[in-house]
Write a structure and sequence with these properties.
CATH superfamily: ACT domain
CATH class: Alpha Beta
Number of strands: 4
Low-confidence stretches: none
Shape: globular
Strand content: 35-45%
Mean pLDDT: 94
Strand order of the largest sheet: 2-3-1-4
Helix content: 25-40%
CATH topology: Alpha-Beta Plaits
Largest sheet: 4 strands, antiparallel
Order of helices and strands: EHEEHEH
Structural class: alpha+beta
Length: 89
């Protein structure tokens, strides 16, 4: 199953490395990455494969959000099919 992970925060060193390590810890494969810096704000969107993740989607979403809060990051995950359905005309 594929999902979209989004990260928003004030720019700081190590955000990309931190999020990558979180995903690796849960056996999540990164398929594509887009990130940008808008003045002092960091934004990142990743397309990931969560097929091998050992926990449920709900548990993963809560865990990522909590881990993000520890570093003042806003981390969200959404299933790709739902994301695409929401953005279809």
């Amino acid at each position: 199953m594929k999902a979209i992970v989004s990260v928003f925060a004030k720019d700081a060193k190590g955000i990309t490395a931190y999020v990558t390590s979180l995903l690796a810890e849960r056996e999540i494969n990164i398929l594509d990455i887009s990130q940008t810096l808008m003045q002092e704000y960091f934004t990142m969107i990743r397309l990931v494969d969560i097929t091998d993740c050992p926990c449920s989607f709900h548990e993963l979403a809560e865990w990522l959000a909590a881990k993000g809060q520890e570093r003042l990051l806003d981390i969200h995950i959404q299933r790709q099919d739902i994301f695409e359905a929401m953005h279809r005309i």
